[in-house]
Write a structure and sequence with these properties.
Elements: E1 10-17, E2 22-27, E3 30-34, E4 36-39, E5 43-47, E6 54-60, E7 63-66, E8 69-72
Parallel strand pairs: 4-8
Antiparallel strand pairs: 1-2, 1-6, 2-3, 5-6, 7-8
Amino acid sequence: MTEVKKEKEYRFFFHYYKRYKCLSIHFKSKCYRANDVICKVPINTKWNKTQPNLVMQGFAKQIIIDKDICTIT
């Protein structure tokens, strides 16, 4: 019997970064900036009592940033 190893998924979240007028994407303890996000995985909202008040979060295997567009898979 062959065992298929599942690729690890990591928590990510993104929110609007008002200071730089872009989106801030946080993945694997690093912060990336982009103007657009294409999200191909399920996400949910998270409300915070402090800034940023609203973030979108989920689990992803990787993010790719190309020409200021972040693709989350």
